[in-house]
């Protein structure tokens, strides 16, 4: 039991408040910059309060783009590409991992654990390590500049397979025996019993994998050459590194704010399921 000491309570709240301010200040400055014009952002000192150009900046970025080079594409196109990629990666990872874990836990076949550890070892081989052969396979299959090329190479997940395996191992054997006595087939047991029990774990993994897919930069940069398939992370990076020109910081910050909205909404609306999923997985 934690003792209720006034000084300890005050110190704990102070640490939390300072931590929130440190984390939130860059986000606040990004929002402030997105509400001013370009001339104001190039003058010193940088303003700390919002300006009068919020609606103009966000409307231009959303509907018109930057009006030069890569920025000619409106950001809603890149946001849609990032959304398709993030959803595809998250749902694909969950679907493949839960089926793999189900096979490893509930079926007895030769080299079952060897296959599991082979999957687990891939944790040491991220996309960046195997990016050259992966690109070669994707190019040979004709999946460059396509949603399938953005999604399929990223949907295998050793972490999700491990978490589902640990959860399935915690399911009582009596439940499996009862389903077998009732004549339930393996897939009926999976759909009617295991899948509903895994909802919180699925929700936690969905949040993690959605953010993982949304923040991907290197892989989309490598396999996409058409603006129609660029992601929002690529858009922000390209506009921040323009050549022989000054970045439009007010529009760039508006783009960054819009890029943060979808993952923030996912975390906010799935916060309870996310926490429950992580806690129950640990059990």
What does this structure look like?
This protein is an all-alpha fold and 283 residues long. It has a single domain, classed as MetI-like fold. 70% of the residues lie in helices and 0% in strands. The protein has 15 helices and no strands. The protein is globular.
CATH topology: MetI-like fold
The largest sheet is: none
Low-pLDDT segments, ≥5 res: none
Return Rg in Å.
24 Å
Report the principal-axis shape. Answer: globular
- Report the average pLDDT across residues: 83
Instruction: Report how far apart the termini are.
Output: 21 Å
Continuous helix count: 15
Determine the CATH superfamily: MetI-like
Instruction: Quickly count the domains.
Output: 1
Features:
MetI-like fold, mainly alpha, 283 residues
SSE inventory with pairings:
Blueprint (H helix, E strand, L loop, with lengths): L5 H28 L4 H5 L11 H10 L11 H32 L5 H10 L9 H10 L6 H5 L6 H12 L3 H9 L4 H12 L1 H16 L3 H6 L8 H9 L8 H21 L1 H12 L1
Helix pairs in contact: 1-14, 3-14, 4-8, 4-11, 4-13, 5-8, 11-15, 13-14
């Amino acid at each position: 039991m934690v003792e209720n000491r006034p000084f300890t309570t005050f110190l704990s709240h102070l640490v939390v408040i300072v931590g929130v301010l440190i984390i939130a200040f860059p986000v606040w400055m990004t929002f402030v910059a997105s509400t001013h014009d370009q001339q104001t952002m190039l003058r010193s000192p940088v303003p700390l309060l919002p300006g009068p150009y919020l609606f103009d900046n966000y409307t231009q970025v959303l509907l018109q783009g930057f009006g030069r080079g890569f920025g000619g594409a409106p950001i809603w196109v890149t946001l849609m590409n990032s959304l398709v990629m993030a959803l595809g990666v998250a749902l694909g990872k969950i679907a493949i991992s839960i089926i793999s874990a189900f096979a490893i836990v509930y079926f007895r076949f030769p080299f079952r654990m060897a296959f599991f550890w082979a999957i687990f070892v891939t944790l040491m081989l991220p996309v960046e390590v195997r990016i050259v052969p992966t690109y070669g396979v994707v190019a040979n299959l004709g999946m460059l500049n396509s949603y399938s090329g953005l999604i399929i190479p990223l949907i295998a997940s050793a972490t999700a397979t491990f978490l589902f395996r640990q959860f399935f191992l915690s399911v009582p054997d009596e439940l499996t025996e009862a389903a077998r006595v009732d004549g339930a087939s393996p897939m009926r047991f999976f759909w009617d019993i295991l899948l509903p029990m895994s909802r919180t774990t699925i929700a936690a993994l969905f949040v993690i994998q959605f953010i993982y897919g949304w923040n991907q930069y290197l892989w989309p940069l490598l396999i996409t050459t058409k603006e129609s398939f660029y992601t929002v992370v690529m858009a922000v990076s390209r506009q921040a590194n323009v050549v022989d020109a000054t970045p439009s910081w007010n529009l760039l910050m508006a783009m960054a704010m819009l890029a943060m909205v979808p993952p923030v909404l996912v975390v906010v609306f799935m916060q309870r399921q996310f926490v429950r999923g992580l806690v129950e997985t640990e059990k």
